[in-house]
Amino acid sequence: MSARSKDAQESPGAPHPAANAHLIGHLRAEARMLEAARSGRMHHAWLLSGPRGIGKATLAYRFARFLLAHGAAIPQQAESLHVDESHPVFHMLAAGAHPDLATLERGIDPRTKKLRANILVDDARKISHFLSMTAAEGGWRIVIADAADDMNPQAANAILKILEEPPANCLFLMVSHAPGRLLPTIRSRCLHLPIRPLSEEQVREALAVVMPQLDARDIARAAPLSRGSPGRAVQLASSRAAELFSRFLEVAQEPGARDPALALTLAGNLAGARNADDFRLFTQLLREWMQDKARLAAAHGQAREAHRWAQLSADAAQMLARLEALNLDRRQALSALFARAGVLT
Length: 345
Description:
Blueprint: H1 27-39, E1 45-49, H2 56-70, H3 88-94, E2 101-104, H4 121-132, E3 141-146, H5 153-164, E4 170-176, H6 184-188, E5 191-194, H7 200-210, H8 216-225, H9 230-237, H10 241-252, H11 260-269, H12 276-299, H13 303-326, H14 330-341
Parallel strand pairs: 1-4, 1-5, 2-3, 3-4
């Protein structure tokens, strides 16, 4: 079964987690996995949770690669889960061709040719069939769910049945951006391994490694806005959103800032149909900026101001959802948000 998740690579230009030999940060999580592999007392299901794009899938594939490369002969002297890129197992996982690793992920809808919104029960049944077979290499049978949050109720219940009575030498690595969306009974059967966002310095390092073609200016813009997510930093560095939002901040952070010309420029640059990704990223940054304003006001005991910014962020989310659903004018929507926030216009 394919080891190449259609969902895992969220950023153009970055390597797929199955083909990524580098893990920046997450040393504690890696050490915990390595110790479990060495001990021979492996829990059958791990829940890797944390914000999107911080390296959870990369860590899951790294763990799977290590186990499939070594089988029962785990090297006790190993200091990490690293497997050299020249190793046959590395090549097989990168190509999605290892017979003992399967992915549970959203499939392509044959009618629309796009990713489905959910993982369906038929996808889960394929995993059940996969685990019923003998391991081709005589070792582990590994399933990476990316993301487990995407399972619909029927798929979740089918996976729960497997987790309740797992086959021998079976390992589930459940990647989750929002573990609260999972069935409590699934969470209770998993060893929970929270994965934390990276530091800004680590994000810069990750960007330099996975996208060496970026220049220092792109990295300098994207890293501070990434919130510890290299995946998001790659998206920002590959778009104009970080550049435009940096221009917005230069003015908006000044008390009583007003710059109608900049407002028109930003709205114009983000309005076209070809700029949908830039618009989505910019408005995500804008909403987070509003949420930060609310938190800062609350921390200073300014309840009314905190409520205003929190309400504005919520209203912005609704406005943007309507805009996407009804294909409304992006320029007008962005100008309205600037006006409501009392900045630029």
